[in-house]
Amino acid sequence: MVAVGERAAEVAAPVLDQLWHPAAEVVTVVRGERSDAEDLDPVLDDVLAEHPDVEVVRLDGGQPTFPWLLGVE
Q1: How far apart are CA 2 and CA 58, in angstroms?
Q2: Beta carbons of 4 and 47 less than 8 angstroms apart
Q3: How far apart are alpha carbons 65 and 63 in whole angstroms?
Q4: 14-64 pLDDT, tens per residue?
Q5: What is the pLDDT of residue 8?
Q6: Residues whose CB falls within 8 Å of the CB of residue 9, separated by 6 or more in sequence, listed in order
Q7: Strand order across the 55-60 sheet
Q8: What 3-state class would DSSP assign to 5?
Q9: Using CB atoms within 10 A of its CB, is residue 7 exposed (0-12), middle (13-18) or buried (19+)?
Q10: What does the angle CA 32 – CA 17 – CA 53 come to, to the nearest 5 degrees?
Q11: Are 67 and 8 a contacting pair, CB within 8 Å?
Q12: pLDDT for res 9
């Protein structure tokens, strides 16, 4: 377990920090059915401010259990 919190947005930053690696080029965000598309905007804005060459890909996954699935490639 990497992070625990009341809201998905508050644990997204530590999860992305854990997934991050020097060769990262793409952050993939797969949104679940019970999350708002803008929930992670502040976290993703911070990532882009620190790593402006990284591409953020957002997908609507519709998964019922997890609000977000995050990947760093």
Answers
A1: 22
A2: no
A3: 6
A4: 999 999 999 999 999 999 998 988 889 999 999 999 999 999 999 999 999
A5: 80
A6: 39, 40, 42, 43
A7: 55-60, 26-31, 68-72
A8: coil
A9: exposed
A10: 90
A11: yes
A12: 81
Joined together, the tokens standing for residue 18 give: 């854990």
Contact (CB, 8 A) for 35 and 66: no
Say whether pLDDT at 68 is over 80.
Answer: yes
Measured distance CA(54)–CA(10) in Å, rounded: 21
pTM of the shown model: 0.89
Distance of alpha carbon 24 from alpha carbon 20, whole angstroms:
7
Q: Which of 54, 61, 4 is nearest to 29 (CA)?
A: 61
At 37 the pLDDT is 84
> Residue 7: is its pLDDT beyond 90?
no
Contacts of 69 (CB under 8 A, 6+ apart): 28, 29, 30, 32, 61, 63
